[in-house]
Design brief:
With 132 residues, the protein is of the alpha+beta class. Helix content is 16%, strand content 30%. It is built from two helices and five strands, in the order βαββαββ. A five-stranded antiparallel beta sheet has the order 2-3-1-4-5, with helices on one face. The chain is globular. The termini are far apart.
């Protein structure tokens, strides 16, 4: 079973679609680009987690000692690309809840790999595949 205090690495690589609501874009930029505190917090289980803001903002020496975040905006479209590597103690299954919340706003169709999660005691990461 899961031991408390163990970290999971989350690597996220995805494009947020141009037609995503402004409130969603504001939350993504808050989480991954140091953007302002969002005005509206959606009604979704992810935001009921005490540590939802830890996604994209915490690190541990177990995986890599620093957070790496990059949000790239494109001149020709209102979509933007997110790259993030962070660690968190996934006590409330924050990662799955985050993926569930963000999936509708990710650009693409079919099966899309948006990164991986790597629990610190596992030999290898588990790919995060969403279906659009």
């Amino acid at each position: 079973g899961m031991k408390m205090g163990m970290y999971t690495e989350l690597v996220l690589k995805c494009e947020i679609s141009a037609d995503s609501p402004q409130a969603v874009k504001a939350i993504i930029k808050h989480m991954f680009a140091g953007g302002d505190e969002p005005c509206e917090i959606p009604e979704h289980d992810f935001f009921k987690c005490d540590r939802w803001k830890c996604v994209g903002s915490m690190s541990s020496f177990y995986h890599h000692p620093e957070v790496v975040n990059s949000v790239t905006e494109f001149d020709y479209t209102d979509s933007f690309y997110v790259f993030s590597r962070s660690d968190l103690k996934n006590y409330d299954d924050e990662i799955s809840k985050f993926v569930d919340w963000v999936t509708p706003y990710i650009e693409g169709s079919g099966d899309i790999c948006i990164g991986w999660r790597w629990y610190e005691e596992d030999e290898k990461p588990e790919l995060i595949i969403i279906k659009k």
